[in-house]
Amino acid sequence: MMLPAYPKYKSSDVEWLGEVPRHWVVKRGRFCMDVNPRSQRLRDLGPDDEISFVPMEAIGECGGLRLEFTRAIADMGSGYTEFEDGDVIVAKITPCFENGKGALATNLLNRAAYGTTELHVLRAFPTLESRYLFYLTISQLFRSTGEGEMYGAGGQKRVPSEFCENFRVPLPSPSEQRTIADFLDRETARIDTLMAKEGMLIARLKEKRTALISRTVTHGLPPDAARAAGLEPHTKLKPSGIDWLGEVPESWTTIQFKRICRRVDVGIAEAATHAYCDDGVPIIRSTNVKPNRLDLTEVLRVEPWFAERNRSKKLHAGDLVTVRTGYPGTTAVIPPEFEGSQCFTLVMSTLKSLECPRFFSYFFNAEAGRVFFEMEGWGTAQTNISVPIVQRVPVVHPPPEEQRAIVDFLDCETAKIDQLLAKVTTAIECLREYRTTLITAAVTGTVDLRGVVA
């Protein structure tokens, strides 16, 4: 969308704001809004009246409130943030502030709410349109400037209320503020609808990918793919004898995983912080293991003497590594360049020579494997599995040449889906970036929306 600029600009006398339209004024926040005011509406209500309750997770990024939580006023202790319909709320703690968490409060129960303590509340004066103020607070200008004013350390950094009070607000007339807010209401709704559709497409593609893998590792190749690989398509299925596995091709067997392995063991289970180094033997952690692949962006290394002391735990190219805790059953294959590496407390499986490791990696990560590990795992906060559980996983066992054909087929087909997923994800990022850029341009006067037709 090509939007015009204003005819004339002037200096705002604020370095980070630059020029603004000549007829706009620039005021400090304290002169056009109250920061963290008390709510008179709450004081007009009785102790038994219900109001909205807004924890941080109920606040959207760049707008939106979930209002399913309510509380009686008498049940609320002290220390919560109070606000009411028409107020703008801004998350003040990292990373919520940087991520754009904030909203214009509307449709609150009894028009009032208590929220998380990690909020700033902005209440616009009559000269400031609340919707315009909301868009200003989710603009890149407001967020990047506020980020530079944060105080504290690590995950406890916060934006002080003084930032909001001193923030230089670019201020057109109230009618022009309404024009800008109306335009942004329309355009952001349109962009959000597009992003929602793209998000639904991502969900469908992921479902298709999951279904494709699960169907192929339990029922074999589709007829055309089987013929292309020089195999006879499976025309008959038989009960596997396992409820959650269902039917499998008539010529396949179902056996315990340990029967096709030469080794099923657990990786290093002792502390290794004293042995970390910059240039040593790679050691794979559960955070590196993703379904059917290793994420090698952050791989720790240990001193060679430490790896040698644990040489019985050495990994070889083609071994499977399976996560035990957190996302149990998630499995990947060790690539050739990580021959001789080590791993922390993962289950290591070395298959017999004729078996295809990637086939069983696909199986462990498919629906069948996920169901088994959920049934057999233990723990309350998070599920855990052990070496004996992995050893007794019932796995389908096609002939080795068919295992390899299935892997080739799935590698090809999932790569196509992954390419589509990457394109859709990029499209969503472009829409999100355009949304932010459009809002920032509108509230700083970079574009003139007065004559824009809906």
TrEMBL record:
Identify the species of origin.
Answer: Eiseniibacteriota bacterium
Protein's recorded name: Restriction endonuclease subunit S
Type I restriction modification DNA specificity domain: which residues? 109-191
State the family it belongs to.
Belongs to the type-I restriction system S methylase family.
Nucleotidyltransferase found in the keyword field: no
EC numbers, comma separated = 3.1.21.-
Annotated signal sequence is none
> Repeat: present as a keyword of the record?
no
Question: Single GO molecular-function term?
Answer: endonuclease activity
Record's keyword terms, sorted:
DNA-binding, Endonuclease, Hydrolase, Nuclease, Restriction system
